[in-house]
Structure formats: C-alpha cells, structure tokens
Amino acid sequence: MNAPHAKRPRRGLTLVELLLALTLLGLLSVMLFGSFHAVVRSWEAGRAAIDNAGHADYLMDQLVAALRSAYCPGQGEDYGLILTDDGDDNDAIEWCKVGPALVGEDAEFAPVPHRVRVFVTPPDGDFPGGFTVRAWRQALQLDDFDPELDTVELTLSPRVIGLNCRVLDPDQERNADDTLNWADDWAKTNTLPAALELTLLMRPAEDGEDPTETKRIVEIPLAELSQNPTLGASANKTSTEGASRPSAGGGFQGTGSARPAGPQNAAPQPPAGLAPPTPR
Description:
The protein has 4 helices and 10 strands.
C-alpha cells in the first residue's frame, strides 16, 4: 500500500513582489491622474476661449453700433471724435452719438445726442477693471459740469485688458502698396474720421499666455459731412426744392431722408453669462 503524498505548502507573495506591485499601481495612478488633469485643463481653456470670444463679439458689436450712430451736425469740438493714445494698448475714444448702443435702452438720454467715452480701467484692489464707458447728455448741462466728477463709470466686461484704436489718415488713405494707411492719433477733434480700426485684447485663460485679439474695421457714415459741412447745406437745399415740387396728382412729393433702421441703431444683446454693467 502506497504512502499518501505530503501536501506542499502554499507559496505567498514576497515583500519584493508586493513592493513592485504597489509601485506599478502608483505609476499607473499618476499617469491616469495626469491625463485626466490635462483633459480638464483643456476643457476649461476651451470654455474660457469661447466665453472670451462671446464677450469680445458683444463688445465689438456695441462699439460698431455706437460709432456708426455717431451724431455730427457739422464741424465743432462738441461733436468730433477725440482719440487719446496712451500707448501699450491703453487707448481711449470719445464722440457724440444717438441710440442705445453702449448705454442701454433704459438710459434717459439714449434717444438724444450724448457723448460717450470708452476706455479700459486697470484693476484696483477688489475692482477688477475692464472695458469701461462714461456717458452724458450733450446739451442742457450746467456750466460747472465735469464728466470726470459728475458721471459714473460703467464696466461692461472685466475680461478686456487692452484697447487699441487707429484712424484712417484723411490726408493719405492708402500707402504705396495700396494698403490702408492707419494713424495712431487724430488731430481733427472737431470732425469724425472716415474709418477706425479697433482691437480688443482679452484676458488669457491662464497666466503667462498671450492675450487674445479681436479686431474690427468700422466706417462712420457722417464722417464726410463732419469734414465738409457744405455738403449738408447742399443736401438740405436739394431736399427743400424737392419738397416744394408739385406731383402729377396735385400733391407734393418730397425727397426727405429718414434715419435707416439697422444694426447701427440697435443695442446687441449680451451673450449668456455676461455680467450686467458694474458702476464704479
């Protein structure tokens, strides 16, 4: 009769094998966490870029509408454009306009001529700064009225960190290579330029990155009238003569002009998530 076989003892993990398994598990966890973190950062950067683009488009639409609704009955310091070039993409522009662009439909002076000043304020303590607007009624102001003291700054977006504005040179609109000739200053502050090149610099999603730029070129319809007031007198004379000409039916047919409706007179709606204006 054969003797029963002896059972072999079960062999467990050695300390070296256990440490190796834990090391591999740790490396795998680090790799997975790094990939997840990179995906999250990319998603956040993409969302920030989309938000910046929405803010920039909204503000640019406001600027274009406000500039195209510039009001100028003729040459005069009260109705011309003032461009302040402080360098380092920190420009400021001021002009007279009508309509709700930049000021909102609730502003009591929106339907009448009013001046607006657009600039970028730097951060100051808890105040984030950003794209800022001052606005005031053109007429019916007290003698001691001071826009710096008697108006309120409204910050439309804290994401804007720079504004650059250039005007089309009225003396030489094109260069030798047929490109537009832009100037950094506007000396004819009693008139309006024919066109402006606007550049908004948006705050980058992460520190150390370059700001994103949004650029537009806008033409001002009343620029020629502001630089040549006699055109307005000629147009009015023609309109008067046409209005007094009898028609075939015994009535009167006129050639008066109405203010066109369109995006230049409308207030674009802010994108989703854009905070309301912040008074300072």
